Amino acid sequence: MTVRRVQSGSPWEESFGFARAVAAGDRVLVAGTTAFKGDVLYGEGDPYEQAKVAFTTALEAIAEFGLAPESVIRTRVCLAHARDVDAVGRAHKEMFDAVRPVTTLLIVQGFIDSRVLVSVEVEAFRGTPSEEL
């Protein structure tokens, strides 16, 4: 099995030694992704905007493997505050309503930067989709 890794340029990828996304077999896994692009946090104070940016970055990572949102089979969403569930849920629905991946939502103690409100993970399938049952 061939394993391929891609980087997004996040400063934490280099300092922690991880890849933004890894393709192995028929899966592409995207690491925890926030609304940071380089040293800039987009949507500071706005969980909806942070979720949109984070999911967009994660989708850009799977695009490196020729995949689109329709390939997403799982999302994991970590929030710093329960109060942000509705805003982040709205962002998730806008991006994945037609896809309907399985989803896990967690409230966490916090993130490496206290301004981060949302972190997302995405898992995509590279195989041939079968018909729905």
TrEMBL record:
User: What Pfam families is this protein classified in?
Assistant: Ribonuc_L-PSP
Q: Which Gene3D superfamilies match?
A: RutC-like (3.30.1330.40)
Q: Which PANTHER family match?
A: BLR7761 PROTEIN, YJGH FAMILY PROTEIN
Task: Write down what this protein is called.
Answer: RidA family protein
Q: What is the species of this protein?
A: Streptomyces tibetensis
